[in-house]
Amino acid sequence: MELSSAPAQPEAEQRVRHFRQILLWPLQLMPLADDAPFTEPYELLLAGGPDNPWRELLDEFSGDAQAFQERHYSEFVTFLPYVQRFLYGESGGEAGDRRAGESPIRVFRRYDIAFARMSFKDSEQPLDFTVVHLDLYFFYDIDVVILALEIAADDLDLARVQDTLYRFGRAYPPYWDDDGSGGHCLRRSEWIAADGRVLAVSDYEERQKYLAFVSRFRAPCIAAHWEFLLRPLVFHHSDEAGAVRYRQIEYHRMPLLAYLALDDPASLSRGDFARLVFVAGPGRKGSLPYSDQHLAGFEARYCHDRYWHPQAAEPGTRLLSCGHAFVMVGSARDAYFTGSENGLLGQFRHQFFLLALIPHFHKAALLMLSDRLVSELNRLQIGNAESVKRFKRAIRQILEIFLRFTHRYWFTEISDQAQARAIFTMTRDHLGSEQLYRELREEIQDMSQYLDSDSLRRQANTVVRLTVVTTAGLVATITTGFLGINLIDAAASSLLEKIIFFTAVAIPSALLTGFAVVKSKALSDFLEALSDERLTQRQKLASLLAVWGKKGRRTLR
């Protein structure tokens, strides 16, 4: 259920002294064409070029050891060893050597966008948010890419923060308001360069464009400013040429992380916390975004209150997660909460970011594989032998990818630290990744078992036919062997006579072999009946006559 309309201002203003939002946008990459000049999608960005603003980001482990900071160390030791190898790889010996034991994650960053300018529907004055990071995460052997966008601002009204969370991360509008603007979206979004130039502008208001796109491609259209961020990657459902193409894989609302530092976080009501974690937008002070029945058990299901003491002078930190969103709320007067290096702000941007990235990557990868499976099933034409062969190859390839995903990427535990473990478990439970994994594994196993049984059936049929042909060939072998005992002495005959004798034996033998192949199923039934001692001679004779009768022809079909 979406809340709509312009935000209702609360009675008493609550200020957010520092605000951070990180959007995570998982997208599915389409398989590369056979004639593509590279084998991995990220190699397009490695090639560079004037139209490519992305540059590979080397992790802290690949640079100068003197630049390796304590927060990097704290981030690293948060995770279990097998997760560390996934995130950071293993040492290749020499500093900066990425060839041996490198991480399967490749990260690219663009630096040309300095601000995200947002125009809200209840205000004529736009608001600029600083773009802290803008990254693309690629994963080896998995056709998924995740856009990570981090923005920041200071001294905002709580209602404005709630409205930002609610409206900013929208890939396309679900409908249009009476004034023609996109429903649930910002009135206008712009990407601004450091020198003030406008690099891209949203087009939520162009209703006919979105309607025509869905009518033509049967897929939603991505807003212009989001398309701009991903170039040179190209939207799959478009006429634009591009080697690496992507498509939407989840809901149009992008998953997010939010950090709020307030003067008095304990003053937030239950409804305020619910609106934040459910990204429900602002509302009247003291009101709830949903019914009491829907919010029953809210604290137990969505809040991690290990360090939250609302009655104390220093209330501490409250963490909330609904899967789609993770929210961290604390006091702006607490130096540990606002610390960007060893404090919780630094942990939010690094450890907690990874705690959200991993489960969202898991879900996106599983949805991608499920989509591939459905796509191959839709393309299958049972009566077309070539289509069946292509289907078998595709299913086996999906099975191989799923096995590699399971052993390389799938984790059910990623940390022994209580808080990190709890947040990861809460997030993946709300996302339903475990259930999705089980369903996909069963579907792939069922399909693999079907292919194996079909192969065994074909092999059994082949063995039956070979057995019958061998039996018929035994007759021809005995016959030619009989001829070979000089019953007919043709050694002194002319070449023509030898050819005639050879032809007289070869043609009937070939006809007999061909007849055995054509009637192999019926002859197999006859041989089985002939060996069955329970059948009478009449029944065995009937089985022989069925080889030439209609019953035999029906059996072959």
Largest sheet: 14 strands, mixed
The total strand number stands at: 14
N- to C-terminal distance:
56 Å
Helix content percent band: 40-55%
Q: How many alpha or pi helices?
A: 18
Poorly predicted spans: 1-10, 93-99, 551-557
- What radius of gyration results from the CA coordinates? 34 Å
Number of domains: 3
Structural class: alpha+beta
What is the averaged pLDDT score? 85
Shape: elongated
- Percent strand equals 15-25%
Description:
The protein is α+β, with helices and mostly antiparallel strands and 557 residues long. It folds into 3 domains: 15-357, no CATH class; 358-454; 467-556, no CATH class. The protein contains 18 helices and 14 strands. The protein has helices at 43-46, 70-77, 81-88, 158-167, 207-217, 224-230, 270-277, 298-302, 335-338, 344-349, 351-379, 385-408, 418-431, 433-487, 495-518, 520-531, 537-545, 550-556, and strands at residues 15-29, 55-56, 105-109, 115-119, 127-139, 142-157, 188-192, 198-201, 234-235, 245-248, 256-262, 303-304, 318-321, 325-331. Strands 1, 2, 3, 4, 5, 6, 7, 8, 9, 10, 11, 12, 13 and 14 form a 14-stranded mixed sheet that branches. A hairpin with a 2-residue loop joins β5 (127-139) and β6 (142-157). It is elongated, with a radius of gyration of 34 Å. Mean pLDDT is 85; it is low at 1-10, 93-99 and 551-557.
